[in-house]
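Thread: Modeling a multi-component assembly for a lab meeting

Hi all, long-time lurker, first post. My supervisor asked me to bring a structural picture of a complex we are working on to next week's group meeting, and I have zero experience with this. I have the sequence lines for every component (282 residues in total). Could someone generate the structure of the whole assembly? Inputs are pasted exactly as I received them:
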Amino acid sequence: MQITHTIAELRQALAQRGRPAFVPTMGNLHAGHISLLHEAKRHGAVTVASIFVNRLQFLPTEDFDSYPRTWDNDCAQLRAAGCDILFAPREKDLYPEPQLFKVQPDPALADILEGEFRPGFFTGVCTVVMKLFSCVFASTGGGAAIFGWKDYQQLMVIQRMVAQFALPIEIIGVPTARADDGLALSSRNGYLSAAERQQAMALSQALQALAAAARSAPGSLADLEATAMQALRAQGWEPDYLSVRQRHNLLPPAMGELALAPLVVLGAARLGSTRLIDNLEF
Ligand SMILES: Nc1ncnc2c1ncn2[C@@H]1O[C@H](COP(=O)(O)OP(=O)(O)OP(=O)(O)O)[C@@H](O)[C@H]1O
Ligand SMILES: CC(C)(CO)[C@@H](O)C(=O)[O-]
Ligand code: BAL
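Re: Modeling a multi-component assembly
Sure thing. I ran the full set together rather than chain by chain. Output:
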């Protein structure tokens, strides 16, 4: 695996290697990330992973400083998975000047759910992803980029960005890798204490219960969501939202659509000081 830090090094490493398949990450890699890399191998001649903890997508009150940075272990996992090129820019390599131009996603999609609770999050994500795409794909004329469904709204925002800017990049979604008890794998799971880890499966269970209730129980969706949030609170969690949405636009479904429409239930909740997200299509 070739390790590159600057944009020039990356582009040199990519020269004459064929179509890249790119997996952007913030590091602290786990089996979910590695499943993206395996998928990448099916979509490109050369696989590129990036590790960059992007300050732009964190609120000042969030965990940018404490976000786990596990360089040696990440490199070992990527090597074992057969990654060809790792791009790990330092902040000054990616942002040699302050990033004054930003990519502002459509508020109808980006100011709801995660965007409501993390204002500016998707502007930070879109800006860094656009920049990473430019680093990887500008000299190759396009390729594929792989994202996890675990970050459902992020994947949708990026799909829209690529379509709207006519970027020659195929966006591939990969299903969520889970622990045996159903907890979605996530770097932030490492913040959980042993006792919290025992309660952690309650989030995915709450999403399953809400999905089942939405399909079968008549009555108001807002009531079902409030009941699900209350049940999660009773298990020690503090939910930001548990919400049933239409898959294609993440807006609430009309009552008549509950029985048949393609839906997704999305949730974000805090256990102690750890905030996790998850979702389930149904
Ligand atoms: N369990 C998972 N299954 C599949 N893909 C995943 C999983 N967890 C993360 N990913 C994907 O890996 C990519 C990089 O994500 P990131 O580095 O933020 O990891 P993360 O585990 O989501 O971290 P965090 O805990 O900070 O949310 C994203 O496309 C994300 O959706
Ligand atoms: C896409 C991403 C790498 C941008 O920083 C990040 O949001 C993530 O890891 O999901
Ligand atoms: N996996 C999403 C990155 C973040 O929460 O900042």
